[in-house]
Amino acid sequence: MTPQEAIKRIEEFGLHHAIGDLPHSMRTVEAFEMAINALKQQEKSRWIPVTERLPEEHKWIGTECFGTTISDEVYVTIEAPSGDRIVKHLCFQNGAIPSHKQRELDAFYKGGKPIAWRPLPEPYKEDNDDSTGSDRQGQKSKGSVCV
pTM here? Predict the structure, then answer.
């Protein structure tokens, strides 16, 4: 079972079985929400084989000019034919590493291919307990364009 399937099953179970006396239902729903959040967080931090799936791509400024889509930047494990591996900070364009980035990789890892990727972590956020009144919580990191 994949984490996505587990999240879906927990969500479905929680909706159908958290019925009954209200305090019990509220605790059950809260427990399910915590479990779902933990699984989602785990899913965000795992290495995903490129054979399983690639990062989601979206339109960017080059879509209109070149007809391409691009992913947000991610960490990518590159494996050389020798078996050596390196982690690079890249994006995918039309389901592959952009050609200019592939040329850079080939200069050091001739024939190196991506084998897995993972999303970048969220940027550091200071605790909301400071006395300055600044509140950076809740601000999402903006996707970056990799070209």
Answer: 0.60
Q: Exposure string (b/e) for 31-52, b if CB count within 10 Å is 16 or more? A: ebeeebeebeeebeeeeeebee
What phi and psi values does residue 120 have, to the nearest 5 degrees?
A: -70, 150
State how far the alpha carbon of 79 is from the alpha carbons of 47, 91, 105, 125, 137, in Å. 14, 16, 10, 33, 37
**Contact in structure between 106 and 75 (CB atoms under 8 Å):** no
Distance (Å, whole) CA 73 – CA 90 = 5
Question: Quick one: which H or E segment has residue 76?
Answer: strand 74-79
Read off the pLDDT of residues 51-89 as tens digits, 9 standing for 90 and up.
998 998 888 887 777 778 888 899 999 998 889 998 999
